[in-house]
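Dear all,

This email documents one entry for the complex benchmark we are building for the journal club exercise. For each entry we list the sequence lines for every component of the assembly. Then comes the predicted three-dimensional structure of the complex as a token string, followed by one or two observations. Please use this as the template for your own entries, and keep the labels exactly as they appear.
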Amino acid sequence: MGKKVLVVDDDPDVRMFSVTVFEENGYTPLEASNGEEGMNVIKQESPDLIILDVLMPRESGIRLYRRLKTDKKLKNIPVVIQSGIAKRSFLRSQKALTEFGGAVVPEPDAYLEKPVEAEDLAGAIKKFIG
Amino acid sequence: MDKILLIDDEADILRVLSMSLRADGYRVVTAASGEEGLKLFERESPDIVLTDIKMPGMDGIEVLKKIKALSDEVEVIMVTGHGDIDSAIESLQSGASDFINKPVKDSALAVSLKRAHEKIDIKRRLKAYTHELEDTVALATRELRRRSNFQIKLIRSSNDGIVATDRELNIVIFNPAAERIFGFPPSAVINKKRATDIYTPEIADVFREAMRSDSPEKEIFWQETAIESKDGETIPVRFSGTVLHEKEKMVGTVAFFQDLREIKRLEHELVNSERLAAIGQTVAGLSHGIKNILHGLKGGSYLVDIGIKRGDTERLKNGWQMIKRNIDRTSDLVLDLLSYSKEREPEYEACLPNEIAADVCDLLEESAQEHGVDLQKSFDPSIGEVLMDQHTIHSALLNLTSNAIDACLFDEDTSKDWHVRLKTTREADKLIRFDVTDNGAGMSDELQKKLFTSFFSTKGHRGTGLGLMVTRKLVEEHGGTIAVDSQPGTGTTFTMHLPYDTLTDG
């Protein structure tokens, strides 16, 4: 069994694209369609890497990212953001939440702005978990 | 005391008279002939000359004429022989002040001298007065010129074009700013053209109206119009004017023109730059939606490639569907953009608004159920068949209702029983009210402000940021209004009012 990679995205097309990339590169795919579901999968399956969208219903990638990076057990899981939102908008949102009394969170390990090429996504995963 | 020149060929008379006059306090010089008298006159400049008429050589009348030619200030008294009235008259005609008869009596001489002295005095005072008057006039003239120069400079340097006319509307003042606007040099219009020759008929009428004696309004307030310059250029201007009066009498008109070309140019530039900014905003607002679509297309083609490579029809099928879905999303986005950017006239047709609302609910029922949202209908049965634009109702309700479902979907409070209610109400003044209410996520004030005005989406891959903008545009084109009321965490109500017309028979 390959290492487990989770994609959290509300768009089924994006999940299918990501899952195909994972399988093609020998990883075991995991899927979640929003932040809430994503957290459940993470707790149950302990993925080796997470591909995370930003704007999603229920719980956004911004919040999920915060929860992961402030959780002692989960904060070492590499997170690659894959979103249509520009990186600086994501960082600005995190900064705003920090200013409103939240904890300081590190920048994501990698940030891929959609549209993302299959090779780039595979490359980003490989970089962290081989 | 006055100085007197005595001229007489008889030495005795000279001696007696001069003694008597000196005794009276006069300074006296004497001459024994007309020729000598003239010489002395030039040298001594006496105030009064007393000369005998009958003298050998130059006689008294000639002396008088010569002296008067030299000075008109001197008083000349003639001494005539008894009964020589002709000479006396001739002397007076030649400018003598008086004559006395021989033999010269002291009393008569004293009277005559007194009169001469008074005349000299009056003349002197008159002269002084005249000088003073001339000085004052000169001073006043200088002051007047200074002021008038100042006003001329003021008019010349004004940035407003100033055109003043007399009461016949002949142009009398035309400053350089007026030249810049109208294109005529002042020399071509001042006293040569009437204001009505260079004003547009519109402006000319305004002045004619104000000049009518019974017109209550003598002031013409600033108004915007355009004039045509000498070269046929249409120049936007602002003008004001007034009818000039002096002591209740109309004396002319004055008009002030402001050249608006520069302002209009700047306004135009501003509009252009605003349009560019709007395009920039549009592109930025759309980029998120476009990026998602591109990502989907890349994903689809990747799946198709893999499917072909591995002979995996499942992948091939999925990839192809993904491509088709994202082509649809592209076309939705483009159509939304087109309908937002294009003016559209509503097409008023007989329709049943409640049925359109019901259709919208049917369309969205599946998606509502899928997400656990209860879709409720509350339609006013008194709404019958009316004349409205079906497309507007359908498109707006579809947008608002699917937004409402999304609002539940995005709600982080999963303990709620979500519902979306679509309500129609017939109101007075031929209006139908549509309420779309949800108990979903709700919106902050800041978010509500952005709703209708910018390409803005909080909806992840679903949103293009165009939906509400298109809806607002459709509603406004239909002469309606749309408003929002929302509380974060509690829910949102969109209220739309659309006017309708009743069906007419036939």
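Observations: The beta strands of chain A are 4-8, 28-32, 49-52, 79-83, 110-113. The radius of gyration of chain A is 14 Å.
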